[in-house]
Amino acid sequence: MKILMLICLLISNIFNVSVSDVSPSDIAVPELGHGLSIETQYYACDPAKVEEISYYVTLTSESDAPAENAFIIGFDVSESGKLAIVTDERRLVVYDAENNYSYSATFDYSGEYGVLWAGENVALMSKSMSSAYIFDDNCKLIGVYRITSKARNYWNNIVMAQQRNVGGTTYTLNEKRTGCGSCSNFIFENGKAYKKLYAANADGEKLLYQSSENYVGDAGELNTSSINFLAIVGPIAAIYVISLLVRKFAPSANPKA
Asked: Which of 14, 97, 125, 247 is 20 to 30 Å from the Cα of 223, by its Cα?
């Protein structure tokens, strides 16, 4: 505990954050859905100031409902039936229990991301940071939490689950974007995405979301960082291959007499 308090004091000095008598163990940790355990990140020592030091994820709320023209990267359903999805356009969209649009927000994040509910608040999930960024309905950051779950392959099996069962209803993503679905996100931007989301229960099946977007040839799109990477590595690889060929086929400098 003393070490954690020293870290909090150090952060407060660097970022001019008032820690007062608050320590990480004093902050109530919300419950994340599907049994994932989390703990407070050290730089969330003071909940009132956590927004000032949230480097990686910031939501920008939108005044109008976005057109349903993006593919779904991930989704979750709260115990009360509210739906949250994140799309390949780096957008969070929330619907109420009757599937009416509630609010949406965009975010700027280059890594792999997903979404879960933490009670009635939304948690944007970061794979690379192993963190949950929890926001309220006004898109204000509540806290940043480290994922401590020991569940095997929790990212694919829980955060990015294609199917969820909540309150007697089964929600399923369908029509996976083909061509780049199994490609690395380093080369293809958010290759794993789905066009439709269905809900099925004893009353039948209902389409909740359908993207109107179609990819030409279903091949995905190269992102800017990938193009820059290929532009740098490509010539280097070509030079290396040429040098190998030259050494292999060039005449010896000291031919036998």
From this structure: 125
The residues with which 165 forms a beta bridge, in sequence order, are 170
Which pTM value belongs to this model? 0.67
Kindly state the tokens that stand for 72.
């779904």
pLDDT digits (tens, 9 = 90+) for 60-99: 888 777 777 889 999 999 999 999 999 988 999 999 999 9
C-alpha angle 189-194-200 in degrees, rounded to nearest 5: 160
Q: What span, in angstroms and rounded, lies between the C-alpha atoms of 49 and 135?
A: 14
Place of tokens 């997903």: 114
For the chain, the first-to-last Cα distance in angstroms comes to: 79
Residue 39 neighbours by CB distance under 10 Å: 14
Cβ(155)–Cβ(129) under 8 Å? no
Q: 3-state class of 40 per DSSP?
A: strand
Beta bridge partners of 38: 147
